[in-house]
């Protein structure tokens, strides 16, 4: 059986300093049937030189230059030119580990796996080198990859887009909203998951998310502005009634968790251990106060 081709889409705008690391992580993939579409979104730095150098090194890399239109526009440009059966997004400042494509494709391609599918891996955070990483900013788990949770838990549950590998057919009716400079990935996840595709979770950190000073997510006024712009797009996917219903269910679940926590606290405060520790604390503070007064 012929291996399915994966189209890796790498949008880049003035991040030539990171682009080499991203493209190096692509060429190091153990799964070899891929193309890498480098979309230069009107960069004014060395992005063109870096992109062309990689396209000359390996014909699987394809460099494109376009007028600046933003991240959504660049991703759409890549989608329009993708020839693979599966899509792997990779922002130019991020990295995927060598087994990412091989591990994900095994879950979505082959006999009995003909339905539209998504494979999501776990991730870790890095700043400079992939050898120095930290825990992810959110917990990913199989039970969260559904339309309801993504609707009411974002951005607490915010899945980095390069964690996913997607059947290209999922994008037949979707393109990223080009008026958004943030939250476009949330819109994508909602659109895709509302159709209830089969989703597989790989609980291995096969993707690295880079945090640096130029990251858009650290600009709160920018994020707030784009959240407001995202609302009309969300309304096209989710009705107000649907959102209220799922939000109410989420509040109920959180209320149940709070009650459980309160019961645990009450049980502990009524325990012999707690009373014993309180007595020690009281006696210790009393002796300390006596010593201070004695010195005065």
Automatic annotation (TrEMBL):
> What are the TM regions of this chain, as residue ranges?
none
- Where the record annotates domain Glycosyltransferase 2-like, the positions are 7-166
Query: Which superkingdom is the protein from?
Result: Bacteria
The terms under GO molecular function for this entry are:
hexosyltransferase activity
Q: PANTHER family attached here?
A: GLYCOSYLTRANSFERASE (PTHR22916), UDP-GLCNAC:BETAGAL BETA-1,3-N-ACETYLGLUCOSAMINYLTRANSFERASE-LIKE PROTEIN 1 (PTHR22916:SF3)
What is the designated name of this protein? Glycosyltransferase 2-like domain-containing protein
InterPro entries, per database record: Glyco_trans_2-like, Nucleotide-diphossugar_trans
């Amino acid at each position: 059986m012929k291996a399915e081709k994966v189209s890796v889409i790498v949008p880049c705008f003035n991040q030539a300093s990171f682009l080499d690391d991203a493209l190096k992580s692509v060429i190091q993939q153990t799964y070899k049937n891929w193309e890498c579409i480098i979309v230069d979104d009107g960069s004014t730095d060395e992005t063109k030189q870096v992109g062309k150098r990689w396209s000359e090194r390996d014909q699987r890399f394809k460099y494109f230059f376009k007028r600046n239109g933003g991240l959504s526009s660049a991703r759409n440009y890549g989608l329009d030119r993708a020839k693979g059966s599966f899509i792997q997004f990779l922002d130019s400042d991020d990295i995927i580990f060598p087994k990412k494509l091989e591990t994900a494709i095994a879950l979505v391609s082959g006999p009995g796996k003909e339905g539209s599918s998504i494979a999501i891996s776990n991730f870790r955070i890095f700043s400079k080198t992939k050898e120095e990483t930290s825990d992810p900013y959110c917990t990913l788990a199989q039970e969260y990859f559904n339309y309801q949770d993504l609707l009411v838990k974002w951005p607490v549950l915010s899945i980095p887009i390069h964690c996913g590998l997607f059947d290209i057919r999922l994008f037949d009716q979707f393109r990223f909203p080009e008026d958004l400079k943030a939250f476009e990935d949330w819109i994508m996840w909602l659109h895709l998951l509302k159709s209830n595709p089969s989703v597989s979770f790989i609980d291995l950190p096969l993707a690295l998310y880079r945090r640096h000073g130029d990251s858009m997510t650290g600009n709160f006024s920018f994020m707030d502005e784009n959240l407001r712009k995202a609302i009309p797009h969300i309304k096209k996917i989710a009705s107000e009634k649907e959102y209220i219903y799922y939000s109410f269910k989420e509040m109920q679940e959180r209320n149940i968790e709070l009650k459980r926590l309160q019961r645990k606290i009450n049980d502990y405060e009524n325990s012999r251990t707690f009373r014993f520790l309180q007595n020690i604390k009281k006696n210790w503070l009393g002796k300390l106060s006596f010593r201070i007064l004695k010195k005065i």
